[in-house]
Amino acid sequence: MTLGSLIGEIQGRQHQVTVYRSGDRLEIETWLAGHGVNAESRSLPSPGPNPFIEIKTDGEVIGIIGVEAIEALLEPPIHRPGDQNGISEGYRVLFDILERMVFSAMSRRELLAVSREIEDRAFRVGEGTLWVGFQTLSAFKSQVDVYRTLSDETNLNIHIYGVEDWTPPEISEISYHTEEATRFEPYWVLAYDGGPDENQACGLVAKEYSDEYTGFWTNDPTTVEDIATTFNTV
Q1: pTM score, two decimals?
Q2: InterPro entries given for it (predicted)?
């Protein structure tokens, strides 16, 4: 199993996104179309309920969420792990509903928001293993303080992978891996095993194409294990 084949496998799932609204096309519909998600629209009576989105995967309804909540995708929150005023419960619900759906043309900000949710979950559980691919070690430079906090305030084992173009500081419980890391260079990838509770497992895989990324995030323990395996075979 490779990171590329994981993205291909998730792309094979059948998703159906339906936007229920009255009036004109919504901004979130434009966002979804721009990120490779085909969304149908259905009319709501006016006056009627507020706009909402229904998501089906392989024919099964997996979530219904109000458009106002999903618009967090347009300006995703960026916070430090453990920040009590950081990510909202609404965004966490959004993270859950849209998991294992492949998005294209994702920005670095959007991926950083997803990464922060994974890091925050690891921080809250406080145990287990977190694997992170930074493409190059110099990309880790701006995140050193975040990962120092994760190391100092939890019992996590943290593994950082990246092409060796910078010498990172020694931090307790953080291991750096550079051998064969070139195969991670096109990818933004994280995997957290959930520690004592596999239901807390989560991960992200996205491949870079000309400064934009195509990929997915997941809460599925088996998929997270598959991501972790790609690290462990380096």
Answers
A1: 0.90
A2: DICT_dom, Uncharacterised_Vng0742h
